[in-house]
Design a protein that fits this description.
- The complex is a heterodimer of chains A (285) and B (605).
- The longest helix of chain A has 29 residues.
- In chain A, 53% of the residues are buried.
- Helix content of chain A is 75%, strand content 0%.
- The termini of chain A are far apart.
- With 285 residues, chain A is mostly helical.
- In chain A, helix 2 runs parallel beside helix 4.
- The radius of gyration of chain A is 18 Å and the shape is globular.
- Chain A has a single domain, classed as Orthogonal Bundle (ABC transporter involved in vitamin B12 uptake, BtuC), CATH 1.10.3470.
- By secondary structure, chain B is an alpha/beta fold.
- Chain B has 3 domains: 209 residues, no CATH class; 152 residues, P-loop containing nucleotide triphosphate hydrolases (Rossmann fold, 3-Layer(aba) Sandwich), CATH 3.40.50; 78 residues, no CATH class.
- Helices cover 56% and strands 10% of the residues of chain B.
- In chain B, the strands form 3 sheets. Chain B has a 6-stranded mixed β-sheet with strand order 8-9-10-5-11-12, sandwiched between helices.
- In chain B, a hairpin with a 2-residue loop joins strand 3 and strand 4.
- The longest helix of chain B has 27 residues.
- Chain B is elongated, with a radius of gyration of 28 Å.
- Classes of the chains: A mainly alpha (285), B alpha/beta (605).
- Chains A and B meet through helix 4, helix 10 and helix 12 of A and helix 5, helix 6, helix 12 and helix 14 of B.
């Protein structure tokens, strides 16, 4: 019993963590939290199923096409919903513009794809029971993403440029960094991470349009708990959330496990508004 | 004598827009709605009933979204909660059945409680977090409704409550909903046009200033969340009756979006706008039946367009008053002679507050590695003008922010007479009689000049939130008093004739004087001015100086942070010079002017 709670908990936790990293990647580049993060996770599943099962493409082709499409959605987010409202960040218009875009994506998926959960293809066909690939694939994808991002940010020039933009936008621009280009690249990267979350978790969550708002919320919880822009926080928060949710599912039953998550979310945020690993905000006056 | 006449004329109600002009659009809409059962069939009565129920909810939600600026995107959760609570209590499957109206009232209580629970994150967290927590709540309520089969009937659902005669016919039920919607419109209008409404938009657009004014965001928002939650849940109960049978499918997230977008289409800070928005969005699917499946998509497109193209919504389109040109070449000419009335408000001078000094002792505060204040000692005497000067980065504004409670010093004490002033609690300063202005004027641009100044007197209001909702006597007295006081304050700083102009249409210098008028509304014991002369012309600076000196003579202590050395030496009784977070020199203007170190460090030879 414990092993199945852990297996399922870590698996959904990895998906949540990846969506959290998607939020963070967009936030670092633009100081914008985007509602399209969860939709990217949903699209990862839906597009994977579309390319591999419905169109019958080879798995690897379907995988690459899925990530490419999600990267495009990330770029569209930047152009349509983020760039026009960057000038007035303090008015929080981005909440509305990204929400609008997220709703459009979700509605088009519901109408053009299906309103019922659709099956997702077997990816590698390895393992069974609690060691089935549907449980460890998301964890592996999450580990690969975190390691990859760390390498990118610490070892490559473009990664350092990302960090510079995240640290101090104005200073980075004064240094002559192409801020707009880097922002678009960050959103494309965020799209890929979000798509990976959905694709690796596809066998677990299926190809279902309503995963969008669900992942929006459950992917945001680790970000809120770990602190905005903090990938390590999102990773720890995601796994903790996944295991907590599965344990609550087992102990108090399906009805109230989501209530338990919500209550935990509110309590932790009221106690530590900056998240458990976050930093205090800059001065206001 | 002349002033008294002018005063009487200034208080003439004819100068404010006539009340009927504000009420007329509502009368037209409700009149047309009331005629629907006479003019058409049951189908349209049903649609009109739905619109009335939606508006009931949206009217209350408008206080949260449109006025307080909190992005509550998941309000369908409270509709769901109300619908299920009413249906379960009236149905009698779980508990003995209750009369429908009792069930509706209990649903209101439950809605108020959950309204606060969902709203709690808004008290401490940033916008996106609140949007998320309402979204999360909406997701969860639907999941619970689906899974808690023994009570909610799960996916099969349960019948909605049946109302007793005469409300059991389509027309009878419609008039009930319309009456409730009308009552709710009236109540939210009372709030919107009163002290609480102004406090809400202050929290929305100038939250830092709101704290200095003494507006407690938490208490204010809790009151609004209680009210809106209760109304939304009652709307849910009516919605269940309208549907006759409810399942979780009836409460899709699309409804939340409809409510939310109605307000944004209508325009923030307006009531008629969101009302028209609700009606339009409710009717839209009826006229565009083939597009029904795409309705949410259309709402989303509308939302994006509104955000990107017309952030003011319908209200801004029909706001003709704000397009009338203003007089050009306006000059602000303060009338310091009126200060006596403004600062005493009819009470004998000096009767309300004992004269006590503000004292800082060994205050230390660093930002990162920089010691902005490095053991600062400062005494500000009551009833005098105290200048604070020094080079950039010497800690002037930081000292002011410590006194007004925005920063928490790492060491040292701040006392007002013998009372300590709590650190990091700016909202308590207004009650001590400490008012301030800001380096960059923090004004609500979308509110009128009059409303902005009236905000400054928020703590003098005596009516409770409920009294304001119902426009009881104390609420009306508060409004009358605050309006008269604000008019006097505006005349004193020299801004008359601009009362009903939106503040964002004024010039920068005028905004500075609005801030001073707003601060005077507090009848402050101390007034902290943060570079009030920045961006003013030489003439304006001279007049401002005269006004400040006169404020000091009326018993209000003034702390003046300024770079205009001439003005400082001209009007101050005491001057303190800061350098590197410490006092470099202190004394009368004459002493400072010849102080050797000051001249070399700051004034220049």
């Amino acid at each position: 019993m414990l092993s199945s709670i852990l297996a399922a908990g870590l698996a959904v936790g990895a998906v949540y963590a990846l969506v959290g990293v998607t939020y963070n990647t967009m936030y670092s580049a633009s100081r914008v939290m985007s509602f399209t993060a969860g939709q990217l996770g949903m699209l990862g599943g839906v597009l994977g199923s579309l390319f591999v099962l419905r169109l019958g493409l080879p798995l690897i082709v379907g995988f690459i096409l899925t990530l490419a499409c999600c990267a495009m959605v990330g770029i569209v987010t930047e152009i349509v919903a983020v760039r026009p409202v960057l000038k007035s960040l303090d008015q929080h218009l981005y909440v509305l513009s990204t929400l609008a875009l997220a709703l459009m994506i979700q509605q088009v998926t519901a109408i053009e794809w299906s309103t019922e959960p659709q099956p997702f293809p077997r990816v590698l066909g390895i393992g069974s029971g609690t060691s089935d690939e549907k449980f460890w694939l998301p964890v592996a994808a999450c580990a690969a993403t975190i390691v990859g991002l760390e390498l990118l940010y610490r070892r490559t020039l473009i990664g350092r440029a990302f960090l510079a933009i995240a640290e101090d936008n104005f200073a980075a621009r004064a240094l002559g960094l192409p801020e707009r280009g880097l922002r678009i690249a960050s959103f494309a990267l965020a799209g890929i991470v979000g798509g990976l979350a959905g694709f690796s978790g596809g066998e677990l969550l299926l190809a279902f349009f309503a995963n969008g708002p669900l992942l929006n919320f459950y992917g945001f919880v680790p970000v809120a708990l770990g602190g905005l822009g903090n990938n390590r926080g999102a990773l720890i928060g995601g796994f903790a959330l996944g295991v907590f949710q599965q344990a609550a599912n087992f102990i108090v039953g399906g009805i109230f496990s989501s209530v338990a998550v919500f209550v935990l979310f509110i309590i932790v945020l009221l106690a530590a508004p900056q998240g458990l690993l976050g930093t205090t905000p800059a001065r206001r006056v | 004598m002349r002033d008294a006449v002018a005063e009487a004329r200034a208080d003439d109600p004819a100068r404010t827009p006539a009340p009927w002009a504000l009420i007329l659009p509502f009368l037209v809409v409700f009149g047309l709605a009331a005629a629907v059962p006479q003019l058409s069939n049951d189908y349209w009565v049903l649609i009109a009933t739905r619109a009335a129920i939606y508006w009931l909810l949206v009217a209350a939600l408008n206080l949260i979204v449109g006025f307080a600026g909190q992005l509550a995107i998941g309000y369908v959760a409270l509709l769901t909660l109300g619908a299920y609570t009413t249906s379960v209590l009236a149905g009698g499957a779980v508990l003995p059945p209750l009369p429908a109206f009792a069930a509706l009232a209990l649903a209101g209580v439950a809605g108020a409680l959950f309204g606060v629970v969902v709203g709690l994150p808004a008290l401490r967290l940033r916008t996106f977090y609140f949007a998320m927590s309402t979204l999360g709540f909406a997701t969860i309520v639907t999941q619970v409704a689906l899974a808690w089969q023994s009570v909610t009937g799960g996916g099969i659902g349960l019948p909605g409550p049946e109302l007793p005669a005469p409300f059991n016919t389509p027309a009878g039920f419609f008039y009930l909903c319309l009456a409730l919607a009308g009552a709710c419109t009236w109540m939210t209008a009372n709030i919107a046009h009163g002290r609480f409404g102004r406090a809400l938009i202050a929290v929305r657009d100038a939250d830092v200033a709101a704290e200095a004014i003494g507006i407690s965001k938490a208490r204010l928002l809790v009151a609004v969340f209680l009210f809106s939650g209760a109304v939304a849940a009652i709307a849910g109960g009516l919605f269940a009756t309208l549907q006759t049978y409810i399942t979780p499918d009836a409460f899709t997230f699309d409804l939340s979006i409809l409510f939310f977008i109605s307000i944004l289409i209508g325009g923030r800070g307006s009531i008629i706008g969101p009302m028209l928005g609700t009606i339009i969005l409710t009717l839209l699917p009826e006229f565009a039946a083939p597009l029904a499946a795409w309705s949410t998509f259309l709402y989303a497109v509308l939302l994006l367009l509104i955000v990107l193209v017309a952030p003011g919504g319908i209200a801004a389109l029909i706001d003709f008053r704000s397009r009338r040109p203003l007089t050009v070449n306006r000059a602000v000419v303060p009338r310091p002679a009126l200060l006596g009335q403004v600062l005493s408000d009819g009470q004998p001078p000096g009767s309300q507050r004992p004269a006590r000094p503000i004292s800082l002792r060994q205050v230390v505060l660093s930002f990162g590695g920089v010691r902005a204040l490095d053991g600062l000692d400062l005494d500000i005497a009551p009833g005098a003008v105290h200048g604070l000067i020094g080079p950039n980065g010497s800690g002037k504004t930081t000292a002011l922010n410590v006194i007004s409670g925005y920063y928490r010093p790492e060491a040292g004490s701040v006392t007002f007479g013998d009372q300590p002033l709590g650190a990091a609690s700016p909202v308590t300063r207004a009650a001590h009689g400490i008012a301030r202005t800001f380096q960059t004027p923090r004004i609500v641009g979308e509110a009128t000049v009059m409303q902005n100044v009236m905000m400054g007197g928020t703590i003098w209001g005596t009516a409770t939130f409920v009294e304001s909702l119902l426009s009881l006597r104390r609420h009306r007295d508060d409004e009358r008093r605050l309006r008269a006081a604000a008019r006097r304050a505006l005349r004193t700083v020299g801004l008359d004739g601009l009362d009903d102009v939106r503040a964002d249409r004024l010039q920068h210098s005028e905004l500075r004087f609005i801030e001073i008028a707003r601060a005077l509304m507090l009848r402050p014991a101390f007034l902290l001015l943060d570079e009030p002369a920045a961006g003013l012309s030489a003439d304006e600076i001279a007049r401002l100086g005269g006004l400040i000196r006169e404020i000091g003579r009326h018993g209000t202590g003034v702390l003046l942070v300024e770079h205009h050395a001439d003005m400082i030496f001209d009007i101050c009784d005491q001057v303190t010079v800061l350098n590197l977070g410490r006092v470099l020199a202190q004394g009368t203007p004459a002493e400072i002017r010849v102080h050797k170190e000051v001249v070399s460090a700051y004034l220049g030879g």
